[in-house]
Amino acid sequence: MNKALLILKREYLTRVRKKSFVILTLLVPFLFAGMTILPAWLAMQDDKEERTIAVYDGTGIFLGRLESTDYTKFHFIPQDEYAKIKEDIRNSPFYAVLFIPPNVLTANRAQLFSDKQVTIDVKSMVAGKLGTILENDKKKQVIDQSGLPDLEEKLAATKTHINLETIKIDQQGSAVKSSTELAMAVGYAAGFIIYMFVFIYGTMVMRGVMEEKTSRIVEVIISSVKPTQLMFGKIVGIGLVGLTQLLFWVIIGGAIVAGVQSFVGGGEVTTLEQSQNLMSTSGVAIEAATAEQQNMALEIIDMIGNLNLPLIFGSFLFYFLGGFLLYSSLLGAVGSAVDHDEDAQQLMLPVTLPLIFSIIILFPVVKNPEGALAFWASLIPFTSPVIMMVRVPFGVPVWELLLSMGILLASIWGIIWVAGKIYRTGILMYGKKVNFKEIVKWLFYHN
Amino acid sequence: MELFRATEVVKDYAGHRALNKVSISVAEQSVFGLLGPNGAGKTTLIRIINQITAPDEGELFFQGRKLKSTDIQYIGYLPEERGLYKKMKVGEQALYLAQLKGMSRHDALRNLKKWFEKFEIQPWWNKKVEELSKGMQQKVQFVTTVIHEPKLLIFDEPFSGFDPINANLMKNEILQLKAKGATIIFSTHNMASVEEICDHIALLHQSQKILDGNIFDIKDRYKRGIFEIETPDTEAVSLFSQNGFSLIEHDLHGNRQRIKFQKATDQSNNELLQKLMGKLEISAFREVIPSMNEVFIQVVQQANQKN
Q: Where does the UniProt entry say this protein principally localizes (chain A) (predicted)?
């Protein structure tokens, strides 16, 4: 078997068989799903605690109009009882006491007494109900005074919501419905994943080189294979470990999303209806809303279809591998040049700085993917793997994409040459405090 | 027959010449000692033979033809600073290193089994290297060095890290390998082991070869006419204070006088003996041959004085 392949196999298998790798690969999608789905699910859960609120109405206009909800009941009480309960609310059967002062119409204020801190849901629900009743009363008064017929219906008809569609004219001149939000989400996610993997797996290459150097096995190995074969096998092997992990995350993540959709999907509609029931009693509004949502879902599917998926996947793979090759060669060279972890940290920083920089400018680029910053950062090979990937979902001129890829390929070739030089000298250099000046000297060694 | 030859090898590192026109010739099925003080260039030469680094000038020959990159499968190398993957299992690792040397998995397994049995280390097969003691790791490393039955073996300080019993075991293994036809380049500071196992040596000093030859020839070359005799004649000491001899030391051993002296003239050993026989009773007569240790120190000091 080819020796580089032997090395690749070892690098791959020893890492993939590690317990930590298996656990991380299987667990992270669930953790991630848990982190995003759980809060959303919890937020969707209604407060199911039954509460009764005593109401002393100083105006007399709320009686019979303050409707109880499923879990919160309103109980109207006379003034003397109100004073008594307020005195000793702890021993009363009520969760809270609502005091509506006689001047509520002008002062716009009421008081809710409780021995506990009133929850935000209860507070906003009570305030909302009081407000709606008062608002309706005032509106009715205005309408009555104006004497105009059908004013209520006319006013309702003035409510307006603009749904702005973004449509992109592509190069052939045909219009394609685009979604800025969707492009942002895809670009952000793709850029971030590349950043994360390049960083984690680049560092893994560095650690692997250091392990071989500090354990001194490297001298035995390079008496059997060429240093370039060792470096190649290591980088490609570890790159495949990264791809394996990504593949598993995509598969497991996809399965989770599909599972959650089929599990929650049915229930979601009912909760949606419930919440809308609370907001509005008009059946027409619900129908309109659900229709609109169905429309939106269709539109999103449509727009996903309009994203150039093969291009996005292709570019993702290219920049993923390109970024990894570039940074892992550099980090491998760093690993070969040092004897200790502390020195590695020191040399690592300047090497990974452009990568960190690209994550810092990620947000400005997502906001303005056509700007000068985005343009230049997507050509510079040290930032292009992350930044160009952020831009691709928005649509990038072909020449820019090709130029960026070409520069990246040429840089990889150059960087591998430089890194190889450093590597071949570094792995056999012990007990020497290495700085950049020293490393530059190594470039001119004849190995 | 010559197995390996290096001619006029030069290697420069930024402003420092590590090897200056060094030539060596290693005969087949011999043990070649590569000696020299620290920093003399031994490790550089060994790395050049292993093709870890390339020489700036000079040529390398293997079995009469130029050394090729594929020849590394005929070479086994045990570096001075040893190491294995700590987290990898012993058997798996030995198999990996053997395959890297170009062996098929099948052959590697067969040979490994043989060696593991010989060293009685089969129970370690599934242990991680970091679980083994340092001496045990050395044994595993030795096996991985010889597993592919190389024609040329290069041992850099092979006995360091072994206890005397295991060091002796290793020494016997090395001599057995030679008996089976292997050629060995052996680098060490331990002159006692050089005398025990080397046939030929080259001494490097300050990047140059300053001594080369068969170990017995070299010792002969550096003997200085020093003799030791034993005689019952207690008056004999006065004889060696004159007559062109120079007395080095003497002591009384029971009723025998032991005298160490240097002869003055170019007379042969037989002439010296004849001359002495006429003057005193001789119980023992021995020429003092310098040890490799003495030769080493003398040669290096002379070289230092020249500079």
A: membrane
Q: Identify whether the C-beta of residue B10 lies closer than 8 Å to the C-beta of residue B21.
A: yes
* Candidate CATH numbers 3.40.50.300, 3.90.230.10, 1.20.1530.20, 3.90.25.10; the one for domain B2-220: 3.40.50.300
Outline where A215-226 has alpha helix (H). 218-221
Task: Tell me how many residue pairs between chain A and chain B have CB atoms under 8 A apart.
Answer: 68
**The total number of structural domains that make up chain A:** 2
Do B84 and A222 lie within an 8 Å CB cutoff? Answer: no
Q: Which residues of B touch A443 (CB under 8 A)?
A: none
- Shortest Cα–Cα distance, A322 to chain B (Å): 28
Say yes or no: A138 and A221 in one domain.
no
Same domain, A91 and A128: yes
Q: Are residues A220 and A323 in the same domain?
A: yes
Say whether pLDDT at A226 is over 60. yes
Mean pLDDT of B233-243: 78
Task: Confirm if B284 and B272 have CB atoms less than 8 A apart.
Answer: no
pLDDT at A76 over 80: yes
Per-residue confidence band for A299, with pLDDT thresholds at 50, 70 and 90:
low
Would you tell me how many other CB atoms lie within 10 Å of the CB of residue B189? 15
Same domain, A255 and A284: yes
Q: Based on the domain organization, do A228 and A82 belong to the same domain? A: no
Nearest to B190 by CA among B201, B178, B181: B201
Calculate what percentage of chain A has a pLDDT beyond 90: 34
A124-128 average pLDDT score: 88
Region A147-169 average pLDDT: 79
The shortest C-alpha distance from B100 to chain A (Å) reads 6
Q: Is B299 on the interface with A (CB under 8 A)?
A: no
Whether A64 shows a pLDDT value over 70: the answer reads yes
Report the mean per-residue pLDDT for chain B.
Answer: 89
CATH number for the domain that contains residue A68: 3.40.190.10
CA nearest to A215 within chain B: B83
Q: Is the dihedral of CA A386, A388, A390, A392 positive or negative?
A: negative
Listing DSSP states for A52-64 in one string gives EEEEEESSSSSTT
Q: Which of A14, A211, A219 sits opposite B52 (nearest CB)?
A: A219
Measured in angstroms, the CA of B76 and the nearest CA of chain A are apart by: 8
**Domain housing A305:** 3-32+179-442
Flag if B100 and A6 touch (Cβ within 8 Å).
Answer: yes
8 Å CB contact between A205 and A335: yes
**Residue A1 reports pLDDT greater than 60:** no
Is B99 close to A223, i.e. CB distance below 8 A?
A: no
- In which band, very low, low, confident or very high, does the pLDDT at A292 lie, cut at 50, 70 and 90? low
Given a cut of 70, is residue A275 above it in pLDDT?
no
**Could you tell me where in chain B the CATH 3.30.70 domains are found?**
224-287
Residue A294 within a domain: yes
Arithmetic mean of pLDDT, A32-61: 79
Which of A216, A219, A221 minimises the CB distance to B100? A221
Same domain, A434 and A330: yes
Q: Across the interface, do A10 and B97 touch by the CB < 8 Å criterion?
A: no
| B70: chain A residues, CB-CB within 8 Å | none
Q: Is residue A382 part of a domain?
A: yes
Contact of B154 with B46, CB cutoff 8 Å: yes
Render pLDDT for A364-403 as a digit per residue (tens, 0 to 9): 998 888 899 999 999 999 999 999 999 998 888 899 999 9
- Among the partner-chain residues A6, A212, A223, the one whose CB lies closest to the CB of B72 is A223
Q: Which CATH class is domain B224-287?
A: alpha beta
Per-residue pLDDT at A46: 65
DSSP states along A224-250: TS-HHHHHHHHHHHHHHHHHHHHHHHH
Nearest-CB residue to B81 (from A6, A216, A445) = A216
User: What sections of B180-225 are H helices per DSSP?
Assistant: 191-197, 215-221
Alpha-carbon dihedral sign for residues A14, A352, A244, A19: positive
